[in-house]
Amino acid sequence: MNEATYPKPVSDVVSTVAEICRHQRKLEIVELLEGAHARFDQVNYDNWNGGTFTWALRLEVPIGIFGAVQSRLGEIEKDILGKLDYLARQYPNHLLNEVTISPTAVGAPALGSRLAPSELEVRQIWPEGRFRLFLSHLAKHKAEVARLKEELRVRGVAAFVAHEDIEPSLEWQTEIELRLRSMHAMAALLTPEFNSSSWTDQEIGWALGRGVLVVPVRLGIDPYGFVGKFQGVRGSLENPSLLAGSIVQALIANRQTHGEMRRALVSAFVGSISFAMSKALKPLVVQIADFSTEEKEALQRACSENSQVMQAIGVRSAIFAAFGDPKPKTVAKSDDTPF
After folding, report:
1. What distances in angstroms separate CA 13 from CA 68, 114, 184, 311, one per listed residue?
2. Does residue 40 form part of some domain?
3. Does the reported pTM lie above 0.85?
4. Residue whose C-alpha is closest to residue 145's, from 157, 156, 134, 161
5. Domain count, the chain
6. Distance between CA atoms of 129 and 245, rounded to whole angstroms?
7. Where a domain ends, among 115, 147, 172?
8. Do residues 102 and 3 touch, judged by C-beta distance below 8 A?
9. Domain boundary residue, one of 115, 143, 162
10. Between the chain's N and C termini, which has fewer beta carbons within 10 Å?
């Protein structure tokens, strides 16, 4: 069976369902989800439609919580599964059609939604429609990393740079933890002495613990430790534009982050605010082959409705060449139209 990784972190999924249940005042299920050790299990693979994966959400809960709901397990599992329907529209090739609840050992840590902030918190700290990337780096490079952040922004990525993004009124460590709990991926900027920091290795450990992709960026040293098995991205902080493009390419190429990055590119392209932004997005967009019909139509409309896309040299023609030139709809004549 072909092995894969579910395209959305389990902590994000469990957190979303918990918030839905909280609004519906199903507090017993909220408690269950917040105390759960959650994971996705791949249970099947089919070659249909380019490859379809079937998944189960496994929830292991403390014995006390399990005992309280044991008589209604089937009902609660069905209720939780029903709230996961939205994922079928986001990831049509990843079918989540089973939820199981089982008891875990006393004292086992919960890895469910406590690791993920609420949807409200996410909207407050990350711009909507963008890929959420945590940049782990040494403070001495904050000026260069700030320039990299700007180049990532025009490519649909909201990058978090701790030394620039944390307001003085916010408690420093809490803010970093909030970003770590809600990021889509991390880029570790491996400059010399990276591992001498008191924070960088902890940040990588947090990401790996959440099952979030870590992209090692070779900037003077090779990946080491648990990320040593990854080849990483090569580049230079002296050329932030080229480096940003390479990081985004890595996010597109990875199955775990492809979906979120694809959607972020569409959102950024549709909302492009400059010719330069449209041109930076063009080569990233045209290489993607699995846009949905709705996403292709959004890209095509941007070429006619957004002047920063429409008038950017070479962008409109490249999009139409890749995804088709939409023809204006013709109005059929009625039988009683006079000649």
Report:
1. 23, 12, 12, 40
2. yes
3. no
4. 161
5. 2
6. 18
7. 115
8. no
9. 115
10. C
What residues make up the domain containing 189? 125-250
**216 touches 230 (CB < 8 A):** yes
Domain-embedded: residue 108: yes
- Residue 165 shares a structural domain with residue 101: no
Q: Please indicate, yes or no, whether residues 151 and 107 belong to a single structural domain of this protein.
A: no
C-alpha separations of 168 from 126, 171, 179, 281 in Å: 18, 8, 16, 33
Are residues 33 and 132 located together in one domain of the fold? Answer: no
Phi and psi based region of residue 206 (left: phi greater than 0; alpha: psi -120 to 50; beta: remaining): alpha
Spell out the per-residue pLDDT of the chain, length 339, in tens.
566 789 998 988 998 998 898 888 888 898 888 878 889 999 988 877 677 899 999 998 877 788 888 999 999 999 999 999 999 889 999 999 999 999 875 444 444 444 557 677 788 889 999 999 999 999 889 899 999 999 999 999 999 997 766 665 556 777 888 888 889 999 999 999 898 887 888 888 888 877 789 999 999 988 888 888 777 899 999 999 999 999 999 999 998 899 999 999 999 999 999 999 999 999 999 999 999 999 999 999 999 999 999 999 999 999 999 999 886 655 555 555 554
Whether 328 is in a domain gets the answer: no
- Residue 198's φ and ψ, nearest 5 degrees, are -75, -10
Share of the chain residues as helix, strand and coil, in percent rounded to the nearest 5: 50, 15, 30
Is residue 107 located within the same domain as residue 198?
no
